[in-house]
Amino acid sequence: MPKITLIPLNRVIEVAAGTTILVGATRQGIAITHDCTEGICGTDIARITAGAENLSAKTETEDITLETMDAGPDDRLCCMAKVLGDVTVEIIEEDG
Known about the structure:
Layout: E1 3-7, E2 11-14, E3 19-20, H1 21-27, E4 45-50, H2 60-68, E5 75-77, E6 82-83, E7 87-91
Parallel strand pairs: 1-7
Antiparallel strand pairs: 1-2, 3-6, 4-5, 4-7
């Protein structure tokens, strides 16, 4: 099963292939801020620091949301990115 390494939490979780980062984390009791699960709100942005090639391709909705949020090229939405192999994810929390 693919592994997600979550930083700065220093947690490694295993998920079934095709599971989104958000669902995988939630099932392990790890809270990732999100307001929707449809790639529209942009509250669950994460920076992929390793294994980006092991994620599903960005959808048009995810691309538009990331562009609107001025996200970087290594950023993905946790609710949209499906894990297909090992990946390292930096959870980005908004300063509030």
